[in-house]
Amino acid sequence: NRPLTNISIANIQDPSLYVADQVFPVVPVQNKSDLYYIWDRSDFLRDEAQDRAPGTESAGGGMKLSTNSYNCRVKAFHKDIADQDRDNADSELQLDRAATMLVTQKMRIRLEKQWVAGYFKTGVWAVDTTPSILWSAGATAIPRENVDAQKATIEAGSGLSVNTMVMGKRVFYALRSCPQVLEQFKYTSAESIDTAMLAQFFGVERLLVMGAVSDSGAEGGTASYDFIGGKHVWMGHVASTPSLMTPSAGYQFGWSGFLGSQNTGIRIKKFRRAEEFASDRIEGEMARDMKVVCSYLGCF
Q1: Got the DSSP string for 226-295?
Q2: Which of 47-61, 95-109, 227-241, 260-274 has the least mean pLDDT?
């Protein structure tokens, strides 16, 4: 259903709370699963140009390639709308829209938790570190020095700048009260410090704050609400525009060949459920896969 798919896409890309759809660039792929190439880092960073005497051949070299695979597994969720509810609704479109929003929210939560479970943790990136002084420690906290030290490690090993930072919401709140940050923006109240100002403070192009919340309790049981992102920070180099020759800490593959997904790997279907149930079904599907492409371009 193209109109409902458009509603879903518009909301799944909403940057206000969820970051998983923003950290890694989305690469549209025609096949659900396939291979992609990885260029050898050393081949691009060695000094091999030499003097050339008249009439002699220039110095040359090659570029080694390795491969890895992706698999855009389909995730899905549905909401049924009973005929009696539809007949009693003020607007049929609004009922479909509400169901689409619910379905989309479920897929967004799944995507966010998938990114956290796979990439917002130790043992994934080339650098894992814990500051000796927590950023919530007060006057002794030195977040900028901590970040700069890890930025230097990534940049010295790649020649690429750290341009993206992702942090949990509690880290964001701690930084707004950090004396070092307040000194930088001494004429601004702590409540006014936003992501753009912190991006400037840390010297990155993008700073994304994980504000999405989920209920980890079972349906019908005791609810347990919390931010999906923990008290952590990730930073790295992410390609602004994905391409075959562009290195990036990670890429997100979206199955563009998924019928009706409009090149995003996301689609919404509306169809009649079996007539004995007297209801319509709004069903959302998302075919995405996230991959670490260059682990040396990220730090947790």
Answers
A1: EESS-S-EEEE---SS--TT---SEEEEEETTSTTSTTTTEEEEEEEPPGGG-EEEEEEEEEEEEEES-G
A2: 260-274
